[in-house]
Amino acid sequence: MGRKWNNIKDKKASKDANTSRIYAKFGREIYVVAKQGEPDPEANQALKFVLERAKTYNVPKHIIDRAIEKAKGGSDESYDELRYEGFGPNGSMVIVDALTNNVNRTAADVRAAFGKNGGNMGVSGSVAYMFDSTAVIGVEGKSEEEALELLMEADVDVRDIIEEDDSVIVYADPDQFNAVQEAFKQAGITEFSVAEITMMAQNEVTLDDEAKAKFEKLIDALEDLDDVQQVYHNVDLGE
């Protein structure tokens, strides 16, 4: 199943860090989940998950605190959670998750990003059935065998475990996310190189150089949209 997860994450973090766009996106997401539930992560599992993911991207504490305080302050700012599905060159598939306070603007922006970069929008359900919602947790300092033994002792079910660079990446059902983390924390591991629930393609496709370059421009255009939180796809982009 492995997708060189750390390489994908590092590339995205490096790209976003130059503009601090990733911080703004996390700030918006933290505000939304804190407002939907309790602003206390111990009482709001969705908020706890977002904060764990924010840590792996080194989101500054003041960004997190400001978003939570905004939710506590009763701001009437509201966002809609949207999912778009579409196609890129040569059978590639894309899922786009967005948080927006202007649905018409976001729909137009996403459609334009597809249209200008060799893709086209699909209807709801046209792509998502080819992806599985998956918890991805990465730790350092453990071998694949050690991680598997640790998780088996904690009676945690996982889909797959692979070694990647200096990390062990665990893939599991989304409802096992907290159980996997807790098992590692009980073993003294409190830092995670990856901690996400993502959409993993059931099958990846490989594009030729020309199509791959066009596809990467499409993904960049989508990720550059302020309202877009996450972009998932089924293309093997290599390292």
Q: What structural keywords apply?
A:
single chain, about 240 residues, alpha+beta, Arc Repressor Mutant, subunit A, Alpha-Beta Plaits, four-stranded antiparallel sheet, 8 helices, 8 strands, about 25% strand
Give your account of this protein's structure:
The chain has 239 residues and is an alpha+beta fold. It is built from 8 helices and 8 strands. It folds into 3 domains: 5-72, Arc Repressor Mutant, subunit A; 80-129 and 202-233, YebC, transcriptional regulation domain (Alpha-Beta Plaits), CATH 3.30.70; 130-201, Alpha-Beta Plaits, CATH 3.30.70. 43% of the residues lie in helices and 23% in strands. Helix 2 packs antiparallel against helix 3. The strands form 2 sheets. The chain has a 4-stranded antiparallel sheet with strand order 3-1-2-8. It has a 4-stranded antiparallel sheet with strand order 5-6-4-7, with helices on both faces.
Task: Give a topology summary.
Layout: H1 5-17, H2 21-36, H3 45-56, H4 61-72, E1 80-87, E2 93-100, H5 103-116, E3 120-122, E4 131-140, H6 144-153, E5 160-164, E6 167-172, H7 177-186, E7 194-201, H8 209-223, E8 228-233
Antiparallel strand pairs: 1-2, 1-3, 2-8, 4-6, 4-7, 5-6
- In terms of per-residue confidence, which ranges show pLDDT below 50 for 5 or more consecutive residues? none
Q: Which structural class is indicated by helix and strand composition? A: alpha+beta
Q: Label the CATH architecture of the largest domain.
A: 2-Layer Sandwich
Give the SSE order as H and E letters: HHHHEEHEEHEEHEHE
If you average the pLDDT, what whole number results?
Answer: 89
Beta-strand proportion? 15-25%
Please identify the top-level CATH class of the largest domain: Alpha Beta
Largest sheet: 4 strands, antiparallel
Task: Output the CATH homologous superfamily of the largest domain.
Answer: YebC, transcriptional regulation domain
Radius of gyration: 18 Å
